From TrEMBL:
<comment type="similarity">
    <text>Belongs to the plant acyltransferase family.</text>
</comment>
<protein>
    <recommendedName>
        <fullName>anthranilate N-benzoyltransferase</fullName>
        <ecNumber>2.3.1.144</ecNumber>
    </recommendedName>
</protein>
<comment type="function">
    <text>Catalyzes the formation of N-benzoylanthranilate, in the course of methoxydianthramide B, a phytoalexin. Phytoalexins are produced in response to infection by parasites, and are essential for the expression of disease resistance.</text>
</comment>
<keyword id="KW-0012">Acyltransferase</keyword>
<dbReference type="InterPro" id="IPR050317">
    <property type="entry name" value="Plant_Fungal_Acyltransferase"/>
</dbReference>
<keyword id="KW-0808">Transferase</keyword>
<dbReference type="InterPro" id="IPR023213">
    <property type="entry name" value="CAT-like_dom_sf"/>
</dbReference>
<keyword id="KW-0284">Flavonoid biosynthesis</keyword>
<dbReference type="GO" id="GO:0009813">
    <property type="term" value="P:flavonoid biosynthetic process"/>
</dbReference>
<comment type="pathway">
    <text>Phytoalexin biosynthesis; methoxydianthramide B biosynthesis.</text>
</comment>
<dbReference type="Pfam" id="PF02458">
    <property type="entry name" value="Transferase"/>
</dbReference>
<dbReference type="GO" id="GO:0047672">
    <property type="term" value="F:anthranilate N-benzoyltransferase activity"/>
</dbReference>
Amino acid sequence: MKEISGTTKIANGHTLDLKVKQLGKPTLVPPVEETKKGLYFLSNLDQNIAAIVRTIYSFKSEEKGNERAGEVMKEALGKVLVHYYPLAGRLTISPQGKLIVDCTGEGAVFVEAEADCSIHEIGDATKPDPATLGKLVYDVPGAKNILEIAPLTAQVTKFKCGGFILGLCMNHCMFDGIGAMEFVNSWGETARGLALKVPPFLDRTILNARDPPKIEFQHKEFDEIEDISGTNDLYNEEMEYQSFCFDPKQLEKLKMKAMEDGSLKKCTTFEALSAFVWRARTKALRMKPDQKTKLLFAVDGRPKFSPPLPKGYFGNGIVLTNAVCRAGELVESPLTFGVNLVQDAIKLVTDGFMRSAIDYFEVTRARPSLSSTFLITTWSRLSFHTTDFGWGEPVLSGPVALPHKEVILFLSHGQERRSINVVLGLPASAMKTFQQQMEEII
């Protein structure tokens, strides 16, 4: 048995030394039926975000207990991989120098483990905590790059209270949030003996680059911005992670603030919150007035492609859009200024823009730059909380860690999922300033 420890602060201020024991060695779970072999194409939208995403799903059930949790999850995984067979393959590099999946049918990596405490002792898991929550996902030891990590690894950790946590390690190049949500929900349906509500649409060649490529937009999302403010030096400080919850009243207050000068006819929650947090973070990082700052965020392109992507599209259907301005303009202007920039960035995303972004990668092989950049990832519309493997819906679901220091997460929260948790990490001194600005609204 392999034992892993991790320390975290829990609600009453004490620390928890979480001990997790792996039960036996990791095993491979292949599809239970014969599936297609050979190379499986990944689109240029998949190439852009080949990062490992680690998430946890926490299930409690005093009546049912967790004795059969590992067995049920493992059996259902083998069945659902028949439909999602590329997840049972391995990533490799194509002759064109791009990521591609070799559909070997080897299987997903599956680990069973047990913890020495109850789930509630972990405390506030709405904040990323790689030191402790990281013990609940399986990281391939000694892996030098993503080619040495299976596209999907799963760990089921049983707790003394009769609950369990499913920890997933998934490569973002295999799917975006919507695709991942559909896969996890399909796995749950399979575990309950149900047919898949949304079977995956596997053909990603519908997002092939054009021949010849046509780059029709500037694509500032790829621009490298010079750090004239010394922001990178600030990140040498100790990092602090926080989550800030905006309830429906506070979100409404933000929208009213964005429209108070009368220049905006309408404003969504996302637009107001994005502009507010972008401005607050820029101020907290003490950027010089002439420092350019870039906002990046993903827009779901599924309905915006012409024709729209098929239902159940298994892959990345998101495209990154952007807004760029001087830090001084953003910080000194009313909230309306930032909201306008966010709205313009959303309007950018058309079929033409997305096809142009696909072609841009084809020609340049460039990836979006994160220098002097703020990247928002929105999970608030993803229904991971509805996943049910037979133990009811998870009492909690969320990320183990933020993938980059520039990333902020928007997560749905509370009754009817109408509140939004803003989750981020900042250098300790910057977090103090950021917190003060949050208190204006929260």
